[in-house]
Design brief:
The protein has about 325 residues and is an alpha/beta fold. The protein is about 45% helix and about 15% strand. It contains ten helices and seven strands. β1, α2 and β2 form a beta-alpha-beta unit. The protein is globular and about 65 Å long.
């Protein structure tokens, strides 16, 4: 009935000192933590493994080592319990993480999916039915925040810190480029934005940067987010869709949430916004997709593999 009994998350703090995710360390942490986390989840949900009727696991996209840990663990559980399992696309999970946050929702929905690895506009026509209308041609918006933050001396991940400083700054302080806005496309580009920040900072003194730090963050964030908002609204208008949703890690950005909510209100469109806990990677969103598959009788075989570049595709 769309209710979550438990959703245990373990964030790997070790990556922050390296300025990004280290695949080998991520895999080792997954191996070490997966059993304690499952036990904790069952304990909080007050259920036993024997009561589980179906299992869901991410099999892509993502780091192949980390994916294989989860996939092989679930395969083993499936055999031991004689319980069906289903492989889920990580990006599907983000879409359903937003739907998990709604008391009621209707299709079709235009979704803006934004994370460290993905920036897409997806038309979700029904359960498990997707059309990708636009996507990034180079870097994802989350990566633009992380790399931009690194140039500014911020930690990893940098998105939340840029968001925090931007609230105190003037977004019109400097005009950073808005990628692919001169063309009739729903696609995005963020490589130019990163380069422009690098060039901007080159001849600036540490004192200047410190004095205008919040303004720089606000200007950089606005350049990244305004394009997302405008193209999402255009996609909804062009396709005559009255419902818009955001999903993924960057959906936690306060400026994106505020701007898109305002634009949806002005255009008379419903706005589906995820709870913060369902923006970042979590198990509940994967389980929610798994529920849809299992209700349709779709299950995976033991031969299922992990695919680091798995594409989002319809399954109806």
């Amino acid at each position: 009935d769309n209710s979550v009994l438990s959703n245990i998350i373990s964030s790997q703090e070790i990556h922050s000192k390296f300025g990004g995710v280290v695949p080998e360390l991520a895999s080792r942490a997954h191996i070490r933590l997966i059993m304690p986390i499952v036990k904790k989840a069952l304990l909080k949900a007050k259920i036993d493994l024997a009561e589980i009727e179906g299992l869901a696991v991410t099999n892509g996209p993502g780091l192949v080592g980390a994916l294989l840990v989860g996939l092989n663990y679930v395969k083993g559980l499936s055999l031991a319990l004689n319980t069906p399992f289903v492989g889920v696309n990580h990006m599907e999970g983000h879409l359903y993480g937003t739907l998990l946050s709604q008391k009621k929702y209707k299709f079709p929905i235009i979704f803006l999916v934004v994370s460290g690895g993905h920036t897409q506009i997806v038309l979700m026509k029904d359960n498990l039915s997707y059309d990708i209308l636009g996507q990034t041609r180079d870097d994802a918006v989350g990566e633009a925040f992380d790399k931009g933050g690194k140039m500014l001396g911020l930690g990893y991940p940098a998105g939340p810190d840029i968001d925090k400083f931007a609230k105190k700054g003037d977004k019109s302080f400097h005009k950073f480029p808005h990628g692919l806005t001169k063309y009739e496309t729903y696609d995005f580009s963020y490589s130019g934005l990163k380069t422009s920040l690098l060039v901007f900072l080159q001849d600036k003194s540490p004192e200047y940067i410190e004095k205008h730090f919040s303004d720089i963050c606000a200007s950089y964030q606005a350049a990244a987010i305004d394009v997302l908002v405008n193209k999402t609204m255009k996609a909804a208008k062009d396709n005559k869709i009255d419902r818009i949703g955001i999903a993924g890690g960057v959906a936690a950005n306060s400026y994106l949430r505020t701007e898109l909510k305002k634009k949806c209100s002005e255009a008379g469109k419903e706005f589906y916004i995820p709870e913060i806990v369902y923006c970042t990677d979590n198990a509940a969103m994967i389980a929610r997709v798994g529920l849809e598959y299992l209700q349709l009788g779709k299950v995976s075989e033991q031969s299922l593999n992990a695919f680091p570049s798995l594409k989002l595709s319809s399954h109806r």
